[in-house]
Amino acid sequence: MAKAPKSAISPTRAENYPEWYQQVIKAAELAEVSPVRGCMVIKPWGYAVWENMQRALDGMFKATGHVNAYFPLFIPMSYLEREAEHVEGFAKECAVVTHHRLEPDPDGGLRPAGELEEPLIVRPTSETIIGETYAKWVQSYRDLPILINQWANVVRWELRTRLFLRTAEFLWQEGHTAHATREEAVEETYRMLDVYADFAENWMAMPVVKGEKTADERFPGAVDTYAIEALMQDCKALQAGTSHFLGQNFAKACKIQFLDEGGTQQFAWTTSWGVSTRLVGGLVMTHSDDDGLVLPPKLAPKHVVILPIHRSDEERARVLDYCRTLRDALQAAPWSGGTVEVELDERDLRGGEKVWQHIKRGVPVRVEVGPRDIAADSVFVARRDQSPKDKGSIARSEFVASIGDVLDDIQSTLFERARAFRDEHTRTIDDPADFEAWFRDGPGGFASAYWSEDPSTQERLKALKVTARCIPIDTADDTGPCVFTGAAGGRRVLFSKAY
Amino acid sequence: MAKAPKSAISPTRAENYPEWYQQVIKAAELAEVSPVRGCMVIKPWGYAVWENMQRALDGMFKATGHVNAYFPLFIPMSYLEREAEHVEGFAKECAVVTHHRLEPDPDGGLRPAGELEEPLIVRPTSETIIGETYAKWVQSYRDLPILINQWANVVRWELRTRLFLRTAEFLWQEGHTAHATREEAVEETYRMLDVYADFAENWMAMPVVKGEKTADERFPGAVDTYAIEALMQDCKALQAGTSHFLGQNFAKACKIQFLDEGGTQQFAWTTSWGVSTRLVGGLVMTHSDDDGLVLPPKLAPKHVVILPIHRSDEERARVLDYCRTLRDALQAAPWSGGTVEVELDERDLRGGEKVWQHIKRGVPVRVEVGPRDIAADSVFVARRDQSPKDKGSIARSEFVASIGDVLDDIQSTLFERARAFRDEHTRTIDDPADFEAWFRDGPGGFASAYWSEDPSTQERLKALKVTARCIPIDTADDTGPCVFTGAAGGRRVLFSKAY
Question: What does the DSSP 8-state code read for residue B6?
Answer without folding.
Answer: S
